[in-house]
């Protein structure tokens, strides 16, 4: 027995560390986990691969499956099966079951595995293309929005919308993606918020995912904060606006587009049955001056986010909420500086006018 233990310990000291063959998948691995090969009889490889694939891996979510794949080259090979990641994408975002989205995902470098590594992280380091007035390379000619809304972990809304981005009308008009027509409404099981407690329930229990997909560039990113950053009930109409947001950077330092907020608004209204209907789901991009970006400007910012590096982290929601709070603080400071400058200019203009009037009056008196 002692000899067996000594051999086991000796074998554990001779583990060889190698790098992951798939960078997108290893991005989810904990820094403490590395891929190892162990030439020892008592390893996970002794478990039949059918058991691992059908009874273990099918019960894992995406980040857990990615971490498990970093444990050994054997598990990495098993965890790279396309059907596993297809099922995870469909269970995480039901909108990906759309035939159009399925076809686009199949063209990604590693299929659904690459799509998940793009769309799951909420923290993005955008790529800068220099001056925002210049034309960055490879602007998307089409964007696809795959949106899912949950209330208390149950899906209440799912839709896929395709938006063309090449027309002059799109590039010059304010950028806005609406998922519902003005008179369209989707019934839900959310109770009508007769009390403020229901608004707090929406803030705690509603979740949203808005994935922007570039079918030509084969990249995707999630623009939602997942949890609401603000819930507001209109005092007159009684409609409730639930806002989700994220921040994309990359504009010139000091420019209004240095940080841009991608805001998603979900408007819910009451019905005769006492349940709420979803009446609006829209996306707009706002700069630090409070101006909404047009189509071309929005494409530039979205392109920066799509090409950016994803940062891993467990506190996904809190990090994105912190980014939104930083954006609002920077926006407030920028507005205050602008008001001070305008106040100084107004004072100078008044002083100049008074001086000119006094000079004219003295000239007339002593002429």
TrEMBL record:
Keyword Transmembrane: yes
Residue stretches spanning the membrane: 344-366
Coiled coil residues, start to end: 314-341
Residues covered by region (Disordered): 1-24
UniProtKB keywords: Coiled coil, Membrane, Transmembrane, Transmembrane helix
Entry-linked InterPro entries: AT3G44326-like, F-box-like_dom_sf, F-box_dom
Gene3D superfamilies per record: 1.20.1280.50
Domain spans labelled F-box: 55-90
KW Transmembrane (keyword) present: yes
Low complexity composition bias: residue spans: 13-24
Pfam families cross-referenced by the UniProt entry: F-box-like
Protein name: Probable F-box protein At2g36090
Organism this protein belongs to: Gossypium hirsutum
Higher taxonomy: Eukaryota, Viridiplantae, Streptophyta, Embryophyta, Tracheophyta
């Amino acid at each position: 027995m002692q000899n067996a233990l000594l051999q086991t310990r000796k074998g554990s000291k001779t583990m060889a560390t190698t790098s992951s063959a798939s960078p997108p998948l290893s991005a989810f691995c904990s820094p403490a986990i590395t891929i190892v090969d162990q030439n020892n009889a008592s390893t996970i490889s002794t478990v039949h691969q059918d058991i691992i694939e059908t009874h273990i891996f099918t019960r894992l979510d995406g980040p857990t499956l990615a971490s498990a794949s970093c444990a050994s080259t054997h598990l990495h090979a098993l965890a790279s099966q396309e059907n596993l990641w297809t099922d995870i994408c469909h269970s995480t975002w039901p909108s990906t079951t759309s035939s159009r989205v399925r076809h686009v995902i199949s063209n990604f470098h590693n299929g659904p595995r690459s799509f998940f590594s793009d769309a799951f992280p909420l923290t993005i380091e955008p790529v800068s293309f220099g001056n925002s007035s210049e034309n960055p390379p490879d602007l998307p000619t089409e964007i696809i929005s795959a949106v899912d809304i949950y209330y208390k972990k149950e899906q209440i809304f799912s839709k896929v919308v395709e938006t063309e981005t090449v027309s002059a009308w799109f590039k010059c008009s304010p950028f806005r993606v609406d998922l519902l027509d003005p008179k369209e409404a989707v019934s839900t099981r959310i109770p009508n918020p007769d009390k403020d407690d229901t608004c707090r329930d929406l803030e705690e229990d509603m979740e949203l995912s808005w994935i922007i997909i570039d079918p030509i560039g084969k990249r995707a990113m999630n623009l939602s904060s997942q949890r609401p950053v603000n819930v507001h009930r209109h005092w007159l109409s009684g409609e409730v606006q639930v806002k989700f947001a994220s921040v994309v950077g990359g504009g010139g330092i000091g420019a209004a587009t240095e940080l841009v907020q991608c805001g998603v608004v979900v408007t819910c209204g009451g019905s005769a049955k006492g349940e709420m209907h979803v009446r609006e789901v829209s996306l707009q991009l706002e700069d630090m001056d409070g101006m909404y970006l047009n189509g071309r400007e929005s494409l530039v910012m979205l392109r920066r986010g799509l090409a950016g590096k994803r940062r891993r982290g467990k506190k996904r929601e809190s990090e994105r909420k912190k980014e939104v709070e930083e954006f609002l603080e920077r926006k407030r400071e920028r507005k205050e500086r602008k008001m001070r400058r305008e106040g100084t200019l107004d004072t100078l203009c008044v002083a100049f006018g008074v001086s000119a009037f006094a000079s004219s009056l003295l000239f007339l008196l002593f002429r």
